[in-house]
């Protein structure tokens, strides 16, 4: 009877860990070979046994509570080790859940996905989300992601951040705007194209390079830097972009750098993960690839 109860408890914990790692009852069910209703029943049983809520139900998937994060950190290592010993074909590696990666859309599309694409041949599965740094770091704390590429270095000890790249910002426009010259007062007469209404990158550039505050409203707002670049290439106005994003357009002449200051604004990007959790080998593989390849970006 003790063995039966022990096996049942292990099954509940395995199901819990699958939900915690995938962020979805449906994905967890596929991972552990159960039906989605069975997974739901097992999680409810574990919550009743512990007397604590483990997951917050969301419109899409679930988010772990702080209790779930603590439990996952405690049981992940022993369960993974046990599963490596019991019931596995020595020639068949244990399946791993997808790696949940999040970051800004432009950097993921331009830099990260080309760098990570070869990992799929090694069995790595990726689930990629995009968004703003503050929101993504909060999602990382809640356990919705394994890794986040962030332009903000998180405070505190709950998240570990390692710098991976420096983004140099450049003031650019289509060749038709190249006659504006270097005077910031003249430059401010050109239409401004931004990814946000408050002109965060443009304001920073003006403050860093010219030492003045930019107060003009944007002419065009597109919440994706790739869209901003497309609008500027088409002649909509001027903007500030990371050099990595517009390097090909600068080389081709479809964009020109209006200024080349000796001390351009630089923004450091970090790869961030939660502290105190047992990292799956595929998560570590993705993280290490990002750190290694970032030296060449």
Description of the structure:
This protein has helices at 2-22, 25-32, 36-50, 66-85, 105-116, 133-141, 184-187, 200-210, 225-233, 243-252, 281-294, and strands spanning 55-57, 62-64, 99-103, 126-130, 147-150, 159-173, 193-194, 220-221, 238-242, 256-257, 266-274. Among the domains are: 1-93, Arc Repressor Mutant, subunit A (Orthogonal Bundle), CATH 1.10.10.10; 167-265, D-Maltodextrin-Binding Protein, domain 2. The protein is elongated. 31% of the residues are buried. It has eleven helices and eleven strands. With 297 residues, it is α/β, with parallel strands linked by helices. α1 (2-22) packs across α4 (66-85).
Give the helices and strands as they follow along the chain. Answer: HHHEEHEHEHEEHEHEHEHEEH
CATH architecture of one domain: 3-Layer(aba) Sandwich
Count, helices: 11
Shape designation: elongated
CATH top level label of one domain: Alpha Beta
Strand content: 15-25%
Q: Give the distance, in angstroms, between the N- and C-terminal Cα atoms.
A: 59 Å
Helix content: 40-55%
Average pLDDT metric: 85
Structural class: alpha/beta
In CATH, the homologous superfamily of one domain goes by the name: Periplasmic binding protein-like II
**How many extended strands?**
11
Could you please say which CATH topology of one domain applies here?
Answer: D-Maltodextrin-Binding Protein, domain 2
Largest sheet, strands/sense/barrel: 7 strands, mixed
Radius of gyration: 24 Å
**Which stretches are low in confidence, meaning pLDDT under 50 for 5 or more residues running?**
88-92
């Amino acid at each position: 009877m003790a063995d039966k109860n022990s096996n049942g408890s292990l099954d509940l914990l395995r199901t819990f860990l699958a939900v915690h790692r995938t962020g979805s009852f449906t994905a967890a069910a596929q991972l552990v070979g159960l039906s989605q209703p069975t997974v739901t029943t097992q999680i409810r049983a574990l919550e009743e046994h512990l007397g604590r809520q483990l997951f917050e139900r969301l419109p899409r998937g679930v988010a772990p509570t702080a209790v779930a994060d603590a439990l996952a950190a405690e049981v992940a290592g022993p369960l993974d080790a046990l599963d490596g010993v019991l019931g596995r074909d020595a020639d068949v590696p244990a399946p791993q859940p997808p790696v949940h990666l999040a970051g800004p859309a432009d950097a993921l599309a331009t830099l990260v996905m080309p760098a990570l694409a070869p990992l799929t041949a090694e069995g790595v599965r990726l689930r990629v989300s995009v968004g703003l740094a503050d929101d993504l770091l909060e999602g990382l704390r809640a356990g919705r992601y394994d890794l986040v590429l962030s332009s903000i270095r998180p405070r505190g000890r709950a998240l570990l951040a390692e710098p991976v790249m420096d983004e140099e910002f450049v003031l650019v426009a289509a060749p038709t705007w190249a006659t504006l010259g270097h005077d910031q007062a003249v430059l401010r007469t050109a239409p401004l194209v931004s990814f946000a209404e408050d002109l965060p990158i443009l304001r920073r550039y003006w403050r860093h390079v010219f030492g003045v505050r930019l107060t003009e409203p944007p002419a065009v707002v597109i919440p994706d830097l790739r869209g901003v670049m497309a609008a500027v290439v088409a002649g909509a106005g001027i903007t500030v972009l990371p050099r990595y994003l517009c390097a090909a357009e600068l080389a081709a002449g479809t964009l020109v750098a209006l200024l080349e200051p000796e001390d351009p604004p630089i923004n450091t990007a970090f790869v961030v993960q939660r502290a105190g959790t047992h990292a799956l080998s595929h998560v570590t593989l993705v993280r290490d690839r990002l750190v290694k390849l970032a030296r060449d970006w």
